[in-house]
Design goal:
Strand order of the largest sheet: 3-2-1-4-5-6-11
CATH superfamily of the largest domain: NAD(P)-binding Rossmann-like Domain
Number of helices: 9
Structural class: alpha/beta
Number of domains: 2
Order of helices and strands: EHEEHEHEHEEHEEEHEEHEEHH
Largest sheet: 7 strands, parallel
Number of strands: 14
Oligomer: single chain
Helix content: 25-40%
Distance between the termini: 41 Å
CATH architecture of the largest domain: 3-Layer(aba) Sandwich
CATH class of the largest domain: Alpha Beta
Shape: globular
Length: 312
């Protein structure tokens, strides 16, 4: 697929990944961003993009932004795993219902290309590195279950309604517009109390962290280079070959803030219910189409920490 001189819709385009995608896409295309600002900020949307504040669960919003002249949709909108996690039913219904409604509207107007931002959480606690064809998929969080359900709906539209779907399963994506997660959490805690840092779990959780700029670059590269012979549903892991522990993230944030706090742990091997303590995705399929990250997991963490701290 050519990614220039086109009209793209980016849902959730005021969030971390969506705003970076919009920023990169708008250089050669017209981009419409839709976001209800429940988990994003208007300032993250690039000025050159057309911004619509709206809720994709509402039919009037769908009719406004999903029109027959759209070339493809980048679907980043989601009730995030850090939001409303105390109401699993609402989180599941909101995400799955929104994606079903979006696909139905696309089908109505003849838009048949969509890139979906999924998650490594669909795999559950899988062997590492985890390839795209790993089975069975057994998520252990509501967020992961919703993402897997959304992937299933996308598969139906790919195989039964002639859609082309690019399905991206993310590692932990971090970056300068990141308002939730372990890095901003540590920055906020140490700004409030530079002597003590409370760490969820035991600190030995270890995952892959990918910088959002590289994540957005990889998404575009795959759309342009994924082989047609692989069928209508293209699933790709996005991540790094390396991992970083929570303790190491605490060290990096402390170093960048010039602090030496005492670490205190809440205990257990998980940070929260549904947390997967150790995760690393196989990116061999991504490498096979010609793309690999230039930043390691630790470099992505440090770069993000530097940016967030510079804004204090």
């Amino acid at each position: 697929m050519e990614l220039e001189d086109s009209l793209f819709l980016v849902t959730g385009g005021a969030g971390l990944v969506g705003s970076e995608l919009a920023r990169q896409l708008v250089e050669d295309n017209h981009v419409v961003v839709v976001d209800n600002l429940s988990n994003g900020v208007c300032e993250s949307v690039p000025e050159a993009a057309e911004f619509v504040q709206g809720d994709l669960s509402k039919q009037d919003t769908l009719e406004q932004v999903v029109t027959d002249d759209i070339d493809a949709v980048f679907h980043c909108a989601a009730v995030d795993k850090y939001v409303n996690s105390d109401d699993p039913q609402a989180q599941f219904d909101a995400n799955v219902g929104m994606t079903q409604s979006l696909l139905a509207r696309m089908d109505d107007v003849g838009v048949d290309k969509i890139a979906f931002m999924s998650s490594s959480t669909v795999y559950g606690e899988a062997p590492r590195p985890t390839p795209e064809d790993y089975a069975p998929l057994e998520p252990i969080s509501t967020y992961g279950a919703a993402k897997l359900a959304e992937e299933s709906i996308l598969s139906v539209y790919a195989h039964s309604y002639d859609f082309t779907v690019w399905n991206f399963r993310f590692a932990n994506v971090v970056g300068p517009r990141f308002g939730a997660g372990v890095i901003p959490d540590f920055v906020e805690k140490l700004e409030e109390n530079p002597d003590v840092l409370t760490i969820l779990g035991n600190g030995r959780q270890e995952k892959s962290y990918m910088h959002v700029e590289e994540c957005a670059e990889a998404i575009q590269y795959v759309l342009e280079h994924s082989p047609d012979s692989s069928g209508p549903m293209h699933s790709y892991n996005l991540g790094t070959r390396t991992t970083t522990s929570v303790d190491r993230i605490a060290d990096i944030v402390s170093e960048e803030m010039g602090l030496n706090p005492e670490y205190q742990y809440t205990g257990g091997d998980r940070g929260w219910t549904g947390d997967i303590p150790k995760m690393r995705l196989s990116i061999e399929k991504l490498n096979a189409v010609g793309w690999q990250p230039s930043l390691s997991s630790e470099e992505s963490v440090r770069r993000t920490a530097k940016t967030l701290i510079s804004r204090l």
